[in-house]
């Protein structure tokens, strides 16, 4: 009988985890210790985390609350949330000045109908390019035409496209073709055979494991990647190596 136990055969660094409670949703874990227990249950050594308040209240407040989750054991790393406003950018710049910023996540501006266009985001995007800070943003919240139009104006900006759903299958390949400095996070990208096809066309270096836990379960996509025909070297890149490279981390950190 096949065992129901699963353990990753490569190091795992989750690129997309939310902590804290949303206004409309209580988190399944109440504190840092419970989150670490969930990571351990799936064999995940490290995770990149952002605070739920950044999604539905304020990125400034969310970033302040995020500090309490980080600890000093090098298991949870911050991805700070930002909007193209002077106070939000100032917060990120102050954190960067203290050496605490390796990446940022674009907070959702859809509720206020702010399009992702250079005229609205130039100050933020140009500073990220100058500071060499990679940017995460969620595909379900961003118009694909805006993504290509805007990011092609900032070709040196490293980006990670998160939350791609299988319904976005027609978007993904043209986006990766148009944006050679972008990467695809795989939390819900489940079209059959597509991970292998994207690996063949763009290389494993463009793919990143993330779970978007607790929006989605942590384990399914990790299990799927172990059965997607990737070599161990490719699997290690997808599960940790690519993220470490983007964050400019030593592999032993």
Short précis:
This protein has 253 residues and is of the alpha/beta class. Helices cover 40% and strands 14% of the residues.
Description:
- The chain has helices at 32-42, 53-56, 59-70, 86-97, 118-131, 144-151, 169-178, 194-202, 220-225, 232-246, and strands spanning 13-19, 46-51, 76-78, 80-82, 104-106, 135-138, 159-162, 182-185, 207-208.
- By secondary structure, it is α/β, with parallel strands linked by helices.
- It has a single domain, classed as TIM Barrel.
- Helix 1 (32-42) links the parallel strand 1 and strand 2 (46-51).
- The termini are far apart.
- The model has no long low-confidence stretch (mean pLDDT 92).
Reconstruct the topology from this structure.
Layout lengths: L12 E7 L12 H11 L3 E6 L1 H4 L2 H12 L5 E3 L1 E3 L3 H12 L6 E3 L11 H14 L3 E4 L5 H8 L7 E4 L6 H10 L3 E4 L8 H9 L4 E2 L11 H6 L6 H15 L7
Parallel strand pairs: 1-2, 2-3, 4-5, 5-6, 6-7, 7-8, 8-9
